[in-house]
DNA sequence: GTAGGGTTAG
């Protein structure tokens, strides 16, 4: 009878009753006949099974059946909806079944179908899905970063007269935090209090995380400390609260505070978890403190927490970043040996890490392998990375770039603005402005509009290829269109400097100051220019001006000054002692020295000195 | 439900 039922040769209504009491039996039968060849149950029969499963609260099994219908059997979401609607039996079925269909759609990211189900039920059948279904739908929109769509659909939900619950309010807070609208998120918190919905620890955590993400740790800490008072002692922080704050400090490089928060949570009886350690390890690596990072790794192992792929990805990324490909490979091998799976982060870290360290052929091979295994996203990130580094590796790589692009096109993908931008910039930097222009023309032919970044590449290319006059004309045109920023003007300024055109340099710099379009790059360009055209002293004066205008000198400022001073010392225009004195002065001013410059210039100078003294 | 890792064009 069961087989007959599955092929719907007998009345669905009559079997409803037969099966509703024993979902186990139904599932067992279904699985057994499923193994037979030519087995193809009708839509109606599967829909009845779904009703039975929902009735007995076996939501996961119901989801599996729905996925079967939608994914393998090729029914559309609306087919399934009709099937469920037609086989709906008020004595047995629950309205909840339609919520589950929406969950099935969102679970594989098909937000449009999910919405169509909601609309169809409302418009055609006068049925309103539950607020939970809406919440699930809205949550998926946020997690897939479709925030515009989120707000539109949220408004739709409200206008249908739904009453928001705590989950809905939290979603709104979440969305506001994601859009970095922190103060609106906080006012949402008060609105919740006003309408009698108690914010919970999730609400707090999301706002605290939002504060940390915009680097306002003080605010995050304040909220954490006031959690008790603000909730009449109902809510206390959990591990997520601490992890958010620890992450905030780690991103800012303040590892001391990050670690003391870890101690604080431990004292409160909240155990640091895998995420706590992963966050701290990443924070130390970001600062270049490998020793501390590895200390925490062994600490976590001692506590019985094994590092996972996230921790390994982090380690490998930062090792590649500082050029230590040997140790990076060692960790990769260890990852493979201990069966820790690669994910899309690992793949991306590998392709970028190999490329930026000059292992372009290896990067290309690995990428090819990934394509073969169908493990590459459609977002062109890896391809654009390859194009970028290939073009920077010299002009013999043009053929390989072509290969990457051809493969891309063969896979049905087309170049995006980043591909074009990377190529235009790469060719400009190689000095082959004709190729850059060819790419630009292709881009226009493809109907793609150039953006500011691309215009800036071209301006920079013109300046670097000694056509500053042309660049100036172009910038004037861009200004008329309002299409320029500090980067555009920095390129032009740099071009004037390269031509030793002091009048234009000063003129443009004053204009930039007036327009408040000055950043640390602007000053670095000028520091370099005055070191070359004038004296180290003049360069240092520009730096003083930089500090006075509250722009912090960075490691590039350091390199510019120290390198220029050293060059002058070699031709006897500057003493070696003064180079060291310059270094000391920069250190006192809090300028971060550049490691390479220090090792190459200052270190040896100091070594020589101390040798002479001893 | 909220927390951790990567990033490509000036």
Automatic annotation (TrEMBL):
The keyword Repeat applies. Keywords: Repeat. PPR repeats lie at residues 165-199, 200-234, 238-272, 273-307, 416-450, 451-485, 519-553. NCBIfam families: PPR (TIGR00756). It holds the Pfam family PPR_2. PROSITE patterns: PPR. The lineage of its organism: Eukaryota, Viridiplantae, Streptophyta, Embryophyta, Tracheophyta. Transmembrane segments: none annotated. This is Pentacotripeptide-repeat region of PRORP domain-containing protein. Belongs to the PPR family. P subfamily.
């Amino acid at each position: 009878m069961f087989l007959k039922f599955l092929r719907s040769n007998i009345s669905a209504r009559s079997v409803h009753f037969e099966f509703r009491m024993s979902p186990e039996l139904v599932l067992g039968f279904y699985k057994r006949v499923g193994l037979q060849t030519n087995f193809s149950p009708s839509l109606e029969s599967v829909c009845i099974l779904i009703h039975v499963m929902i009735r007995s609260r076996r939501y996961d099994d119901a989801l599996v059946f729905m996925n079967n219908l939608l994914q393998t059997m090729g029914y559309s979401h609306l087919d399934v909806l009709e099937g469920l609607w037609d086989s709906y039996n008020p004595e047995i079925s629950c309205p909840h079944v339609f919520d589950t269909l929406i969950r099935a759609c969102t679970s594989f990211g098909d937000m449009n179908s999910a919405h169509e189900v909601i609309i169809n039920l409302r418009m055609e059948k006068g049925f309103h899905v539950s607020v939970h279904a809406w919440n699930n739908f809205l949550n998926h929109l946020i997690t897939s970063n479709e925030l515009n769509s989120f707000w539109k659909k949220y408004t739709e939900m409200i206008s249908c007269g739904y009453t928001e619950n705590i989950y809905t309010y939290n979603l709104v807070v979440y969305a506001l935090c994601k859009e970095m609208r922190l103060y609106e998120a906080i006012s949402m918190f008060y609105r919740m209090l006003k309408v009698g919905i108690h914010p919970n620890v999730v609400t707090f955590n999301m706002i605290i995380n939002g504060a940390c993400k915009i680097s306002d740790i003080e605010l995050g800490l304040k909220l954490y400390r006031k959690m008790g008072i603000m909730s009449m002692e109902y809510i206390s922080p959990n591990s997520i609260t601490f992890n958010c704050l620890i992450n905030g400090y780690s991103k800012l490089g303040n590892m001391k505070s990050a670690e003391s928060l870890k101690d604080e949570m431990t004292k409160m009886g909240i155990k640091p978890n895998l995420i706590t350690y992963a966050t701290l390890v990443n924070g130390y690596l970001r600062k270049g403190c490998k020793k501390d990072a590895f200390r925490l790794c062994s600490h976590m192992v001692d506590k019985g927490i094994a590092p996972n792929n996230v921790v390994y990805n982090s380690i490998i990324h930062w090792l590649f970043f500082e050029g230590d490909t040997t140790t990076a490979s060692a960790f990769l091998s260890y990852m493979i040996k201990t069966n820790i799976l690669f994910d899309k982060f690992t793949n991306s870290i590998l392709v970028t890490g190999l490329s930026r360290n000059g292992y372009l052929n290896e990067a290309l091979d690995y990428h090819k392998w990934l394509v073969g295994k169908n493990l590459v996203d459609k977002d062109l990130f890896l391809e654009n990375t390859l194009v970028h580094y290939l073009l920077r590796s010299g002009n013999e790589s043009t053929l390989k770039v072509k290969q990457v692009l051809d493969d891309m096109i063969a896979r049905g993908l087309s170049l995006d603005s980043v591909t074009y931008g990377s190529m235009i910039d790469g060719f400009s930097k190689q000095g082959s402005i004709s190729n850059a222009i060819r790419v630009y023309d292709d881009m226009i032919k493809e109907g793609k509009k150039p953006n500011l970044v691309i215009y800036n590449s071209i301006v920079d290319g013109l300046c670097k290829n000694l056509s500053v006059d042309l660049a100036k004309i172009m910038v004037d045109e861009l200004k008329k269109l309002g299409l320029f920023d500090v980067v555009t003007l920095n390129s032009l300024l740099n071009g004037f400097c390269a031509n030793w055109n002091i009048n234009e340099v000063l003129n443009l710099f004053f204009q930039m100051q007036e327009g408040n379009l000055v950043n640390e790059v602007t000053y670095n360009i000028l520091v370099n220019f005055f070191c070359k055209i004038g004296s180290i002293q003049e360069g240092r004066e520009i730096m003083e001006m930089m500090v006075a205008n509250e722009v912090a000198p960075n490691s590039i400022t350091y390199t510019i000054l120290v390198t220029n001073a050293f060059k002058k010392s070699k031709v006897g225009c500057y003493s070696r002692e003064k180079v060291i004195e310059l270094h000391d002065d920069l250190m006192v001013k809090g300028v971060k020295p550049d490691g390479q410059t220090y090792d190459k210039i200052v270190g040896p100078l100091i070594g020589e000195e101390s040798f002479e003294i001893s």
